[in-house]
Design goal:
This protein is an alpha/beta fold. It contains 11 helices and 10 strands. Pfam families: Peripla_BP_2 (PF01497).
Length: 267
Amino acid sequence: MSDAYPQRIVCLTEEPTEVLYAIGEDHRIVGISGFTVRPPRARKEKPKVSAFTSAKIGQILDLKPDLAIGFSDLQADIARELIRAGVEVWISNHRSVDGIVAYIRRLGAMVGATAKAEALAVRAEENLARIAALAAALPRRPKVYFEEWDDPLITGIRWVGELVRIAGGDDVFPELLEEPLAKQRILADPLEVVRRAPDIVFGSWCGKRFRPEHVASRSGWSDVPAVRDGELHEIKSPIILQPGPAALFDGIEALHAVIARWAVGAA
């Protein structure tokens, strides 16, 4: 019966690793992304065989995987090489909160752990509903600018904007949330942020430390409410920019904590 499901999985990004550990199927993982930080023990237990847009193909093949799992069009070249070498590959491309929840369920089904994945998905849905209820009780909603990169300025991806909304805020660039590619979310004019006057700025600079003092010193930004009031906050990229469970638990918790503090303080 066990042969019906993958036994040797290479995870090219963090979210499949996090899901498989969370549902007790981590014994199937034979290789992980070097960017993996969740769960911490994965880095100690599994060989690191890929970055995000590159991978050690030879090392991966030596692991004799029966499935490789990745994310997004940015891993198309890695996927092509592995497919040509005879490896089965699943590249997900979900970009929404609902997509993350569905991803958990699909991955669980692929490894024969449907019930455990369903339990994790339901916990995530319940947490989102709990945060939404807390947010609904806040006296006001802040305007939020989420910055995914600083040079050039790139706004948040769709699931981030959705989590901001659930957590009690309103993304100031709603028209960009549907754009799946980072290059489509580049702000040609940084002063557009000034014009939209966010009350809170969240920064998650995709693997490097957020520097609020750099944001505050940008030309023309001194009158932005978030800058004026010191509401410049880092959300660590592993808990918000990975389309996996972390965003639905720790990520939204971090967003809501800042938003709730602002809403109550401003009331």
